[in-house]
Amino acid sequence: MAFTQDELKQQVAKAAVEYVKSGIIGVGTGSTANFFIEELAKVKHKIDGAVASSEATAQRLRGHGIEVFDLNSVDNLEIYVDGADEITEHMHMLKGGGGALTREKIVAAVAKKFICICDATKYVPVLGKFPLPVEVLPMAKSHVARELVKLGGQPQLRDFTTDNGNLILDVHGLTITDPVAMEAKINQIVGVVTNGLFAARPANVLLLATAEGVKTYQK
Ligand SMILES: O=C[C@H](O)[C@H](O)[C@H](O)COP(=O)(O)O
């Protein structure tokens, strides 16, 4: 039976809710995370609330009557649930298609377990077909763009301002065979806030929605 991409996202969101036990949950951003929020709302009596990785997610959580906590008031999070633009068998991810990469990386850093929820189109052998988002301080955009060209990429300025008041360069043309090294190298460019590679801290669980059902991968 063929499912639409939205049906696959919904299936994987339902599977992720099985990991919600109690306490405060870290919640990601994007269309797949939005399906997760719908499912989370159905079990909100089990949790104290959530930490959001974007203003959009915070608004959506509050709309469902889920309390949103400031990350600074939370010592640790059991789980962080979020989508990805690409993920490999090593659980390395490329994220930030929705521009929320920096807050996502910060909330994920606090969580014990990163649960990545994706439909099968996101599962790739090598990262980089999806343009790599890099959040930059506005005054540094030209400098950072020149440095990204030296790394072999073609940066394009997105018509977008992040929740942090910064800009996004989407870097095309990178074949990212060593995501850990590339993540570190780009983060060392002065003016970069962070980039959309989540490799130093990969996902712990991947829930992948396929035509044959939701597959679970653990690391
Ligand atoms: O900034 C956005 C996030 O990194 C999303 O997790 C990513 O873009 C995937 O979004 P979607 O679930 O809409 O494909």
Automatic annotation (TrEMBL):
Gene3D superfamilies (alphabetical)? 3.30.70.260, 3.40.50.1360
What Gene Ontology molecular function terms does this protein carry? Answer: ribose-5-phosphate isomerase activity
Show the catalytic activity.
aldehydo-D-ribose 5-phosphate = D-ribulose 5-phosphate
Q: What residues bind substrate, as annotated? A: T29, G30, S31, T32, D82, G83, A84, D85, K95, G96, G97, G98, K122
Tell me its EC number(s), please: 5.3.1.6
Note one Pfam family from the annotation. Rib_5-P_isom_A
* Record carries keyword Acetylation: no
Q: How does it assemble?
A: Homodimer.
Q: What does this protein do?
A: Catalyzes the reversible conversion of ribose-5-phosphate to ribulose 5-phosphate.
Please report which protein family the annotation says this sequence is part of.
Belongs to the ribose 5-phosphate isomerase family.
Q: What is this protein called?
A: Ribose-5-phosphate isomerase A
In the UniProt record, the gene name given for this protein reads: rpiA
